[in-house]
Design goal:
Low-confidence stretches of chain B: none
Number of strands of chain A: 11
Strand content of chain B: over 45%
Number of helices of chain A: 0
Mean pLDDT of chain B: 92
Distance between the termini of chain A: 38 Å
Order of helices and strands of chain A: EEEEEEEEEEE
Number of strands of chain B: 11
Strand content of chain A: over 45%
Shape of chain A: globular
Oligomer: heterodimer
Structural class of chain A: mainly beta
Largest sheet of chain B: 6 strands, mixed
Helix content of chain B: under 10%
Radius of gyration of chain B: 13 Å
Helix content of chain A: under 10%
Radius of gyration of chain A: 13 Å
Amino acid sequence: GAVVSQHPSWVICKSGTSVKIECRSLDFQATTMFWYRQFPKQSLMLMATSNEGSKATYEQGVEKDKFLINHASLTLSTLTVTSAHPEDSSFYICSFPGQGGFGYTFGSGTRLTVV
Amino acid sequence: KQEVTQIPAALSVPEGENLVLNCSFTDSAIYNLQWFRQDPGKGLTSLLLIQSSQREQTSGRLNASLDKSSGRSTLYIAASQPGDSATYLCASSGFQKLVFGTGTRLLVSP
């Protein structure tokens, strides 16, 4: 089945710094990828759709200048949280669309804590 | 705009019980319905995927049904075990987008 590697699994950073999260598909290629955010005890909310070779599409209310997405290849997408603030502390998770009709595959997630 | 709701929000049962988790969605124009399991602080594990043309899928002790006309899906867990304790999420799939439900936190006690 499809395998997605996401790292780091957790990161603590100081307010004002930037953090990069990587998501890589290990055994398939995808032109599209999704980034989600999950606050404690809430469900996953789609942040943006990452398109290989073009600009990402952001959901309403998500700041594109704050959450930089780069989908430089068919197997790698990165999310950079710029000038992080404590309110950005959350669980970030990537997802690739289904392969062969098997639904979506998710990364293991990244717990970001901004202090 | 698709809205997905799950009931109950939390469920606590003794080991061995059969249980049903409910998922409802407002827009029946979906491609498929997927059930996931999420352990605390972890990513999502796909459990079952029901295509829009299907009515149910089974995997081991899990059975998921889909009724598009009524906007409902159920996840049936037979003979629950402590290892089933997790949050269960349903998600409807539209055009390349998943909309997640609010989740059901399940605790199965020994």
